[in-house]
């Protein structure tokens, strides 16, 4: 959702951005041409967001299509029983979590177009292999490999997007990219519905064709991804030298000081990254949100199946949920960027989520004595609306408050890494023994939603307090540090203002 914001509007400080002498020096410059900025933004939007949207769509679809395969006969054909399906879900995450930080550090040294397209081709091959396995062990091995290969995708895409846009422009761009996960959910249900009709073709069951066809599509897309994914701003081919200068100037003004950077990864920089409370609170917040998010994505077809719809109907009923969620998420992102504010929108998402899980916990038995099926279905809408308003907001909120190449690369990778560890817990909260009413699943999800509201409040109050300390000059002692360290402070620079 591109936004053509003039430099005058972009430079108006929000409630917690107060002018400093450093900021005033930047405003003394010759004003930037709004028309040139608009053209620059349009070029970035055109070359960056669509190709990454498609990349993450395939990544997410290849991650969650096991949920569609489950209700099409995967468990029965592979002789899986008990909690083996939950374990198959869980095994995706250990390598996925462990490799995200190294992947982002490595991507800084490799062209993003080469790195991301190579990962994509490789996980497409593994997805096809999932459709060819004949044992539970083979499925688990494929899930481990899939997790390892997808580890660099989300943090890498976030990092790349963040290098092209000002902080007040990030939320709607990142959310437009992130809606690919919702499109993947809707498309996966529709595609699974169609591919299930190939049951028996070539001697393969319908669930196998889900993996095979989607894996082939991923491989084909990876070729175009290599050609069209932009590299770092200083390397990209779609910007002219003049536009690169304009981009650097805009981002310098947005960061309040050219010195709010971290372009060197030395011991002092590593220490600053690891002791930054923002990274850890933002990571824990993403972790608790991921538990509710992943559990919903993996189990929604199965939950709808338990509402009384057969497998085909359950696949189709996932589609409207994702479409409505995408629309509300994009609206929230647009308003959040317009207001330069995140916290209130996170609390709105928390409210929708909490209402959803309260309804599901109180739904009663699946007969005339329980809640009508349409009310239960409405709760699923509320759950995903709340989830998808909150998840991209938490990620961008942290990114907005990190500055410098290495600070942003490592900080965001830590957040995504810790956050995605929530998928391990998410894989095990919906128990087959509790069908059709998943008390453990719904109760855990509600607790995590409330925890997210708490951590969002802590993060918001912490940002306001830190900004106040900088306004009062209590961080100016950092300007007395030796030049080498002072020029590598990142967002610890006293002139940098945090966004709530």
From TrEMBL:
Alphabetical UniProt keywords: Membrane, Transmembrane, Transmembrane helix, Transport
GO annotations of cellular component type: membrane
PROSITE patterns registered for this protein in UniProt: MFS
Localization per Swiss-Prot or TrEMBL: Membrane
Coiled coil feature spans: none
Pfam families listed in its UniProt record: MFS_1
A Gene Ontology molecular function term of the record: transmembrane transporter activity
Membrane topology: Multi-pass membrane protein
Keyword check for Ion transport: no
SUPFAM superfamilies reported for this sequence: MFS general substrate transporter (SSF103473)
Transmembrane segments: 46-66, 86-107, 114-133, 145-165, 177-196, 208-229, 279-304, 316-336, 343-360, 380-398, 410-430, 442-463
UniProt KW Membrane keyword: yes
Region (Disordered): 1-34
Domain of life: Eukaryota
Domain Major facilitator superfamily (MFS) profile, first and last residues per copy: 48-468
Compositional bias of kind Basic and acidic residues: 20-31
Protein name, UniProt field: MFS general substrate transporter
């Amino acid at each position: 959702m591109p936004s053509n914001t003039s430099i005058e509007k972009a430079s108006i400080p929000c409630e917690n951005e107060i002018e400093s002498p450093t900021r005033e020096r930047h405003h003394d410059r010759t004003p930037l041409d709004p028309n040139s900025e608009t053209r620059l933004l349009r070029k970035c939007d055109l070359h960056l967001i669509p190709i990454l949207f498609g990349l993450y769509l395939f990544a997410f679809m290849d991650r969650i299509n096991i949920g569609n395969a489950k209700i099409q006969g995967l468990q029965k054909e592979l002789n899986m029983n008990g909690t083996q399906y939950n374990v198959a879900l869980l095994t995706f995450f250990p390598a996925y979590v462990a490799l995200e930080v190294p992947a982002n550090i490595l991507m800084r040294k490799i062209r993003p177009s080469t790195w991301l397209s190579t990962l994509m081709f490789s996980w497409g091959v593994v997805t096809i292999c999932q459709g060819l396995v004949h044992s539970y062990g083979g499925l688990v091995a494929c899930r481990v490999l899939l997790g390892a290969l997808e580890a660099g995708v989300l943090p890498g895409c976030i990092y790349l997007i963040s290098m092209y846009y000002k902080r007040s422009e990030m939320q709607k761009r990142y959310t437009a990219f992130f809606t690919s996960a919702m499109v993947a959910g809707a498309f996966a249900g529709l595609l699974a519905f169609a591919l299930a009709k190939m049951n028996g073709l070539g001697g393969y069951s319908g669930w196998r064709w889900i993996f095979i066809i989607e894996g082939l599509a991923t491989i084909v897309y990876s070729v175009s991804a290599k050609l069209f994914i932009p590299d770092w701003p200083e390397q990209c081919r779609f910007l002219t030298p003049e536009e690169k200068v304009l981009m650097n100037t805009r981002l310098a003004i947005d960061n309040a000081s050219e010195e709010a950077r971290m372009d060197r990864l030395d011991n002092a920089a590593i220490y600053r990254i690891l002791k930054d409370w923002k990274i850890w609170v933002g990571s824990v917040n993403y972790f608790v949100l991921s538990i509710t998010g992943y559990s919903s994505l993996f189990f929604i077809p199965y939950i709808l199946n338990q509402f009384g719809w057969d497998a085909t109907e359950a696949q189709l009923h996932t589609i409207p949920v994702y479409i409505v969620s995408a629309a509300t998420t994009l609206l929230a992102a647009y308003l959040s960027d317009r207001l330069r504010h995140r916290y209130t929108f996170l609390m709105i998402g928390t409210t929708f989520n909490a209402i959803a899980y309260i309804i599901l916990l109180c739904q009663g038995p699946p007969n005339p004595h329980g809640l009508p099926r349409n009310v239960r279905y409405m709760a699923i809408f509320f759950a995903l609306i709340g989830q998808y308003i909150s998840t991209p907001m938490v990620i961008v909120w942290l990114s907005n408050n990190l500055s410098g190449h290495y600070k942003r690369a490592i900080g965001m990778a830590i957040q995504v890494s810790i956050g995605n560890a929530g998928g391990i817990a998410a894989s095990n909260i919906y128990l087959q023994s509790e069908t059709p009413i998943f008390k453990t699943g719904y109760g855990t999800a509600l607790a995590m939603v409330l925890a997210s509201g708490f951590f969002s409040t802590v993060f918001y109050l912490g940002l306001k307090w830190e900004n106040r300390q900088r306004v009062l000059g209590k961080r100016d002692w950092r300007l007395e540090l030796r030049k080498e360290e002072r020029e590598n402070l990142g967002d610890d620079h006293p002139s940098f203002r945090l966004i709530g």
